[in-house]
């Protein structure tokens, strides 16, 4: 099989594997009803073992797409294909009321190879945001408790991302790279207000948005050898702000429960969604290619963006952009990896041990107050796959705990298992026959 046929075959395999990911949201969180939904980690199997760490990591046998400059470090003899899935259990706690929910999702499929000397390329598909929730709140309209009302909230969808990127080491130790992505997806949300008294109309609000746009991210990495056993690397990333060219809509339907007559009002905000400018910086210390320790910091300027909100002002319904919905988001991650000897013939010497912890703020407000902050931690392993044909592929397994909470609001505790398989094939080796 020729090189181009193999690349095409990997692309077809990725598209088949992606179908389940596009069809489901992978979350039950009520917090996904805000903004564009829950922001995805956008990291592959080896990153997830370190809780998403990797802006300064340069791996020759893993796809590190959170910094495209890393592609220049790829092994010249191999083609890498990496795919992953996750399963999670979440406990929701609000005012002493607890409930559990389970989810499973296909997370990503990415590939990478070296195209030319000092130039690596990568492509794949990853989720950008997830939306998925369904819950109801019931209470009484007045102190007499003669009329009850129920607000039912539901939402589904999300934004998906397919990317192509390249990284180039144009000076010794200094690399640049870029990912260009296509974003697409539908976000559907609804709020239905109903009453036990049939004389009161049911009020339904339906919010929809269909995204078809792009995303551009650039990265830089610099690696400096301190001595024969120690090296220091830094990584920088930048994401471009722009509007998504999407016209979100809001349909308000008032239904007379006795006559079934409905009145509908429709609102549209032209070009009402956008993604922020983002910055990332990371550092990594490499000791003898055995112990790698690092720290990442990311900053997203959501606070400067607007978001469409429905509200009634002086008895006049409006669906319009507001500039007090979002807030800037920060995230700090520290972690590392240990592998005694990745070239050893001993199986246990080649196992990679990983761990990481993170703290992140939310990117939106709820009723004028800050949304939930997030504390998370993970531990993972990179287990070599050894068979008669290949001893370079890796099974990446990690467990992650995520705690999301805000004052007076819902608390979420999630335990997630991530499983990824990195296939590393020597497609470009030249064989000699005597």
Note the main attributes of this structure.
14-stranded antiparallel β-barrel; two-stranded antiparallel ribbon; disordered N terminus; mainly beta; 434 residues
The strands making up the biggest β-sheet line up spatially as 2-3-4-5-6-7-8-13-14-17-18-21-22-23
Name the helicity range: under 10%
Query: What is the H-and-E element order?
Result: HEHEEEEEEEEEEEEEEEEEEEEEE
Q: Count the beta strands.
A: 23
User: What is the percentage of strand-forming residues?
Assistant: over 45%
Cα Rg: 24 Å
What does this 3D model show about the protein?
With 434 residues, the chain is mainly beta. 6% of the residues lie in helices and 59% in strands. It has two helices and 23 strands. The strands form four sheets. Strands 2-3-4-5-6-7-8-13-14-17-18-21-22-23 form a 14-stranded antiparallel β-barrel. It has a two-stranded antiparallel ribbon with strand order 9-12. Strands 15-16 form a two-stranded antiparallel ribbon. Strand 3 and strand 4 form a beta hairpin. The longest helix has 21 residues, at 3-23. It is elongated, with a radius of gyration of 24 Å.
């Amino acid at each position: 099989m020729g090189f181009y046929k193999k690349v095409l075959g990997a692309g077809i395999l990725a598209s088949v594997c992606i179908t389940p990911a596009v069809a489901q949201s992978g979350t039950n969180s009520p917090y996904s009803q805000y903004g564009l939904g829950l922001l995805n980690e956008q990291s592959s199997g080896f990153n997830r073992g370190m809780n998403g760490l990797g802006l300064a990591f340069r791996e020759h046998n893993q796809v590190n797409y959170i910094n495209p400059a890393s592609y220049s470090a790829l092994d010249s003899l191999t083609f890498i294909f990496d795919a992953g899935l996750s399963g999670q259990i979440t406990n929701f706690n609000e005012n002493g009321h607890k409930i559990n929910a389970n989810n499973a999702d296909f997370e990503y499929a990415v590939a990478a190879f070296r195209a030319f000397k000092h130039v690596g390329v990568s492509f794949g598909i990853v989720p950008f945001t997830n939306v998925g929730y369904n819950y109801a709140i019931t209470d009484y309209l007045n102190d007499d408790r003669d009329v009850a009302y129920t607000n039912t909230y539901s939402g589904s969808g999300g934004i998906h991302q397919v990317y192509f990127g390249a990284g180039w080491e144009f000076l010794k130790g200094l690399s640049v790279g870029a990912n260009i992505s296509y974003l697409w997806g539908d976000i559907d949300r609804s709020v239905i207000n109903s009453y036990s008294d049939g004389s009161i109309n049911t009020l339904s609000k339906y919010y929809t948005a269909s995204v078809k746009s792009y995303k551009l991210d650039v990265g830089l990495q610099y690696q400096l050898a301190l001595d024969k056993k120690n090296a220091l690397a830094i990584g920088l990333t930048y994401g471009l702000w722009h509007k998504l060219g999407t016209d979100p809509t809001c349909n308000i339907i008032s239904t007379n429960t006795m006559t079934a007559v409905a009145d509908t009002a429709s609102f549209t905000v032209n070009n009402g969604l956008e993604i922020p400018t983002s910055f990332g910086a990371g550092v990594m210390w490499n000791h003898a290619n055995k112990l790698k320790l690092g720290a990442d910091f990311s900053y997203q300027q959501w606070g400067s963006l607007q978001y469409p909100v429905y509200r009634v002002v002086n008895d006049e319904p409006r669906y319009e952009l507001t500039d007090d919905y979002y807030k800037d988001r920060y995230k700090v991650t520290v972690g590392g990896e240990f592998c005694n000897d990745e070239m050893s013939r001993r199986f246990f010497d080649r196992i990679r041990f990983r761990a990481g912890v993170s703290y992140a703020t939310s990117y939106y407000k709820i009723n004028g107050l800050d949304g939930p902050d997030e504390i998370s931690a993970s531990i993972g392993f990179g287990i070599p796959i050894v068979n008669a044909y290949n001893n370079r592929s890796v099974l990446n397994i990690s467990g992650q705990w995520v705690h999301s909470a805000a004052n007076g609001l819902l608390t979420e505790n999630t335990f997630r298992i991530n499983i990824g398989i990195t296939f590393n094939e020597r497609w470009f080796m030249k064989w000699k026959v005597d």
